[in-house]
C-alpha cells in the first residue's frame, strides 16, 4: 500500500517538474487564467461565494485550481497554484508567486477527487507562514472553513478570528479528507519559467524581485483587483 502511494506521488512530482520547466511560461499563464475563472465563478454564486468584507481584509490569497487527491486508505495529494499579497499602502494585489503541494496521507479515505481550493490569509502569522519555504495547513498554521453566502456578511465578528480560511469546490467523490495536513511550498522552477529568475514566494511577494512583470501577470493583477477589491479599514 505504501509502495502504491509512493508511486502515485513520484508520478505527480515528475509530471509537475516537466510542467514547470516550459521555456515560455505557458503553463503558468494557463494556471493564472484558470485561477481567475475559479474565483470569478465562486463569487458569482450568491449562496456560496466568499463574503466581500472578508475578501477585502485578506492579507494574501492562495489559489489551487484543480488540486488532485486520490487514495485507497493510503492517499496522495498534488496541486499547482499561486499566491498574491496585498500591498499595505494601496491594497492592490501583487504579482503572482507560484506554489505547489505534493504529499501523502494515511487513514480512512477512498476514491478520487479534483478540488478547486482558495485560501485567504488573514493574519500576520499566516502571512509569515506563506513566506516561509513551506508550511502545513492545520499544523504550522491554523485553517478553518470560511463562511459563505449572502448571510455571512452579517457575521462581521467572524472575519478576523481565523489565520487562514479555506474555500473549495469538489469535482469528484472522496471520503474522509480535508485540507488540513496539506504542505504548501514555493515552486521555484515555475517561477523561473515565468519570470526568468529562480525566485521563492518571499522574493516575489515581499522583496518584489520579479523585475519586469509579464503581460499576463499585469492582467492577473488587474483582474484580481476587480474580483477582490480593497476596502479601507478607516
What would the keywords be for this entry?
globular, 7 helices, seven-stranded mixed beta sheet, disordered N terminus, 234 residues, alpha+beta
Number of domains: 1
Helix run count: 7
| Global mean pLDDT | 78
Helix content: 25-40%
Summarize the structure.
The protein is an alpha+beta fold and 234 residues long. Helix content is 32%, strand content 30%. The chain has one domain.
Please provide a written account of the structure.
With 234 residues, this protein is of the alpha+beta class. The chain has one domain (2-227). The chain has helices at residues 2-20, 26-43, 52-57, 124-130, 188-195, 201-205, 215-227; strands at 60-85, 97-121, 134-136, 143-145, 164-170, 173-175, 183-186. The radius of gyration is 17 Å and the shape is globular. The N and C termini lie far apart (55 Å).
How would you summarize the topology of this molecule?
Elements: H1 2-20, H2 26-43, H3 52-57, E1 60-85, E2 97-121, H4 124-130, E3 134-136, E4 143-145, E5 164-170, E6 173-175, E7 183-186, H5 188-195, H6 201-205, H7 215-227
Parallel strand pairs: 4-5
Antiparallel strand pairs: 1-2, 2-5, 2-6, 2-7, 3-7
Helix pairs in contact: 2-7
